[in-house]
């Protein structure tokens, strides 16, 4: 007898999935599970962590710090691995219990209750509040359905906009990953403020009138519901033969399946699914975006890490518009920092956190040309996904500031970026060139219109000068010279062919960019032509390199350098060995910089390591450079300039250190060679006195008239009133005396301007 076995796979699937489905009503406990941060140094260590039953808690896995949830019975095995780790939470279940108790005390809060954001909310409560927005302000808010989930739940969003049509749109979304509850509250807070403060807040009123907002607080609705009983659940709820769920933020088409950025293992937390857009939730997000071509920007909220990220995630390559992404990343960073003083680092996803293959940010940008971002919300690991309720509102407040900055940037007709940054310090009496990129937002740029507006001081008219086109949308501006001790205020403008003008900063000239002119002070100028006697360890030495194992045959200037093993390569399995300078006095200096010439060969991090470090006490060291995750082999001398101002500014005992190591047991390279070391900074107090500046404020103006008269008639009284000033600054005719013959020359100085 032959059996018809077509139903066997279905029966197997049903038997496997039945117990998984039954878990939905049974809270999963994590008693004595520890959250640990592991320093992954080799790819094989990731497999070792998985073999321990470790649950991934970070956004992805890669070389560097990765957070895992470790069962108590696996801790002895973790210790035997001899992998560096740190315990962040000794018993995660205690934190989960405290969170559940807090939610139980809050109860079923009305959508109109001002305490709605005092605690986390269920999907039902979120949806009720979305509908309340629309009920309260039907002129501004409309609820829409993005699509439906695998378990056939609706994915709701809210459209918010003032009167008028044809506006650019921005989409905010949260909860691609179920356990990231704070990522639901932030977009809900943004919606709440846009709706309920439209009539009372002029800034919100302006952006709601100019931007169409689409806010989707919960993308992964099934996973979010399930996370109420399995708090650490990440993926959606698609059944599998052995494991449930797909990581929705690895299921978009851009870079899908790129090695290192997702997993093809259905049991992995970063499982990318069977194909791009295999999941109904990502299909819904894709189709909604395609149906709304007016979307110019997206922001996806995640937790945790305090990071602002932009394309790309699947590759280390930079996008064509990376200067504008950098400008927007920094603007959001600054907006967040200004609210509660909390720092969110920023940069491209792949180099800021981990490789992310199949993420939504890349798809929006690559396929639709949308400026797309992802923010990892609070915190940096102390509470991880279980952020305490008392941090909900502060997190929401700081991210509302970033959201408004982003929205306002897209209301401007012309947009500016500065690929090399903008100077805050100028060499006195010396012009400085600045590179500017200019694009028009939805319009055509008048390519002859970009201008620089500048003035010395904080009053008077701005002088206008044209920007020099360098090709494409790149221009050169030349900041005019400013006298020592004075501040140059400046801003940029450009117009569309329709005659609409935009400026940078956005509210210029009320706000401007500033750069102060101050002399440069040289703290260290060491050509290494003789041995300076710095402290060495291991095979660090001063002398002539032998040109072996990839080393140079001579220094950049002269023959000598400081190098690690001047006769060849560094060794395997070595600890850190340092080259350390003596103390350097940077008192009174700002914007301190270290520059040197480098010839370095080192295997990629984290296998082998090379660092540049700075200290202001000789014991606590800050990394200002470290080798990247690609092998570095210099074949010529390379100039290096590093900003050490955060450690060195106005410090009396600054030490520099070059470190070689640690290294692994495999390949070796030539290591460090350095030459021509220079430390310099700006000295705001180093300007020579200005003739006629009798109040010694660095400027000659009407405020010097009374002090001049005092110096003229009573030198002793002047000395008492201005003890740090020299009354000979009143010698306007330069004859070595202060008398009535200085009056007319002083008036000429005063009225001649800068």
Question: What does this protein structure show overall?
Answer:
This protein has 754 residues and is α+β, with helices and mostly antiparallel strands. The protein has 4 domains: 100-409, Zn peptidases (Aminopeptidase, 3-Layer(aba) Sandwich), CATH 3.40.630.10; 414-517, Immunoglobulins (Immunoglobulin-like, Sandwich), CATH 2.60.40.10; 522-682, Galactose-binding domain-like (Jelly Rolls, Sandwich); 702-751, no CATH class. Helix content is 24%, strand content 25%. The strands form 7 sheets. An 8-stranded mixed sheet has the order 5-6-8-7-9-12-10-11, sandwiched between helices. Strands 14, 16, 17, 20, 21 and 22 form a 6-stranded mixed sheet that branches. The N and C termini lie far apart (106 Å). 43% of the residues are buried.
CATH topology of the largest domain: Aminopeptidase
Mean pLDDT: 91
Give the CATH class of the largest domain: Alpha Beta
Count of separate structural domains: 4
What is the CATH superfamily classification of the largest domain? Zn peptidases
* Count of beta strands: 35
Brief overview:
The protein is an alpha+beta fold. It contains 17 helices and 35 strands.
């Amino acid at each position: 007898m032959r059996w018809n076995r077509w139903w066997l796979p279905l029966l197997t699937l049903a038997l496997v999935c039945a117990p998984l489905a039954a878990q939905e009503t049974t809270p999963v406990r994590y008693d004595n599970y520890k959250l640990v941060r592991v320093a992954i140094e080799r790819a094989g260590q990731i497999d070792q962590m998985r073999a321990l039953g470790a649950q991934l808690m970070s956004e992805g896995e890669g070389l560097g710090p990765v957070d895992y949830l470790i069962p108590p019975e696996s801790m002895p095995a973790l210790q035997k691995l001899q992998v560096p780790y740190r315990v962040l939470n000794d018993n995660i279940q205690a934190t989960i219990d405290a969170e559940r108790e807090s939610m139980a005390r809050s109860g079923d809060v009305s959508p109109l209750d001002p305490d709605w954001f005092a605690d986390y909310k269920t999907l039902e409560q979120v949806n009720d509040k979305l509908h309340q927005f629309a009920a309260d302000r039907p002129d501004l808010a409309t609820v829409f359905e993005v699509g439906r989930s695998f378990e056939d739940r609706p994915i709701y969003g809210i459209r918010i906009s003032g009167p008028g049509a044809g506006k650019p749109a921005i989409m905010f979304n949260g909860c691609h990953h179920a356990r990231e509850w704070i990522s639901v509250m932030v977009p809900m807070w943004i919606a709440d403020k846009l709706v309920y403060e439209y009539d009372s807040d002029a800034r919100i009123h302006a952006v709601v009138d100019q931007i169409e907002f689409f806010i989707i607080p919960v993308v992964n609705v099934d996973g979010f519901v399930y996370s109420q009983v399995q708090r650490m659940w990440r993926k959606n709820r698609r059944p599998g033969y052995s494991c449930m769920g797909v990581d929705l933020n690895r299921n978009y088409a851009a870079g899908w399946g790129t090695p290192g950025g997702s997993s093809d293992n259905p049991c992995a937390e970063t499982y990318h699914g069977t194909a791009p857009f295999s999941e109904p939730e990502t299909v819904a997000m894709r189709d909604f975006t395609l149906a709304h071509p007016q979307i110019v920007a997206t922001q996806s909220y995640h937790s945790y890490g305090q990071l602002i990220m932009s394309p790309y995630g699947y590759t280390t390559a930079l996008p064509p518009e990376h200067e504008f992404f950098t400008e927007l990343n920094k603007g959001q960073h600054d907006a967040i920092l200004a609210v509660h003083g909390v720092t969110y680092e920023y940069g491209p996803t792949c180099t800021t956190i981990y490789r992310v293959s199949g993420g939504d940010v890349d798809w929006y940008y690559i396929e639709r040309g949308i400026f797309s971002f992802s923010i990892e919300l609070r915190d940096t690991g102390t509470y991880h996904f279980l952020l305490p309720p008392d941090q909900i509102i502060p997190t929401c407040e700081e991210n509302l500031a970033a959201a408004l900055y982003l929205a306002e940037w897209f209301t401007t007709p012309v947009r500016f970026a500065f690929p090399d940054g903008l100077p805050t310090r100028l060499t006195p009496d010396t012009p400085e060139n600045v590179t500017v990129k200019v694009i028009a937002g939805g319009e055509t740029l008048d390519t002859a219109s970009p201008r620089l507006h500048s003035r010395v001081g904080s009053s008077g008219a701005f002088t206008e000068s044209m920007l020099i086109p360098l090709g494409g949308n790149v221009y050169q501006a030349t900041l005019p010279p400013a006298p020592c001790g004075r501040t140059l205020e400046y801003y940029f403008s450009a117009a569309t062919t329709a005659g609409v003008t935009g400026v940078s900063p956005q509210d210029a000239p009320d706000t401007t960019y500033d750069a102060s002119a101050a002399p440069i002070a040289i703290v260290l100028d060491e050509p290494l032509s003789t041995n300076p006697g710095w402290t060495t360890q291991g095979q660090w030495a001063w002398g002539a390199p032998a040109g072996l194992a990839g080393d140079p045959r001579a220094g950049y200037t002269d023959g000598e350098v400081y190098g690690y093993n001047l006769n060849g390569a560094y060794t395997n399995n070595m600890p850190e060995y340092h080259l350390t300078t003596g103390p350097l006095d940077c008192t009174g200096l700002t914007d301190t910089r270290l520059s040197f010439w480098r010839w370095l060969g080192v295997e990629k991090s984290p296998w082998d390591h090379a660092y540049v470090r700075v200290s202001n006490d000789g014991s606590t060291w800050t990394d200002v450079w470290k080798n990247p995750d690609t092998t570095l082999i210099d074949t010529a001398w390379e100039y290096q300039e590093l900003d050490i101002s955060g450690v060195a500014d106005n410090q009396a005992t600054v030490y520099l250190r070059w470190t070689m190591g640690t290294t692994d047991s495999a390949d070796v390279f030539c290591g460090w060679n350095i030459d021509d070391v220079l430390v310099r900074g700006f000295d705001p107090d180093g300007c020579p006195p200005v003739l006629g500046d009798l109040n010694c404020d660095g400027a000659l103006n009407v405020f010097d008239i009374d002090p001049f008269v005092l110096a003229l008639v009573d030198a002793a009284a002047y000395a008492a009133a201005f003890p740090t000033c020299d009354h000979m600054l009143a010698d306007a005719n330069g004859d070595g005396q202060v008398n009535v013959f200085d009056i007319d020359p002083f008036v000429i100085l005063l009225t001649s301007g800068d």
